[in-house]
Amino acid sequence: MHGHQKQRVMSIDEAQQMVDLWIKTTGVRYFNELTNMTILTEEVGELARVMARKYGEQSFKAGEKDNISEELADILWVLLCLANQTDVNLTQALKDSFEKKTKRDKERHIQNAKLK
Asked: Taking the domains of the chain in order of start, what are their residue ranges?
């Protein structure tokens, strides 16, 4: 991205559609749901490794790099795949999650002395 160009915002719906198009053209087809669940777990582990080295007490080994953005994108990619495969609209699911958390935790976090 060049200095003064504004990057266009991508909605979650658009992201789901773009992943679907890529999978069905370049990627040939989706891996099955269980394979993608395993890949998601692997990607979360890769993020955990980088976090342990950057924010935890471990140090980076030779050849390892701080690639948190890449690891987060890999997790998001597989999550979008799983949503597509299981017919989940993530935009609606996230809205529902906000509503549930707001009702359930309306007073909980405000009253939590550990968060002050």
From this structure: 12-91
Rounded to whole angstroms, how far apart are CA atoms 74 and 12? 15
Q: What is the pLDDT of residue 106?
A: 76
User: From CA 62, how far away is CA 3, in angstroms rounded?
Assistant: 32
8 A C-beta contact, residue 71 and residue 64: no
pLDDT digits (tens, 9 = 90+) for 9-29: 999 999 999 999 999 999 999
The domain 12-91 belongs to what CATH superfamily?
MazG-like (1.10.287.1080)
* Sequential DSSP letters for 51-99: HHHHTSS--PPTT----HHHHHHHHHHHHHHHHHHTT--HHHHHHHHHH
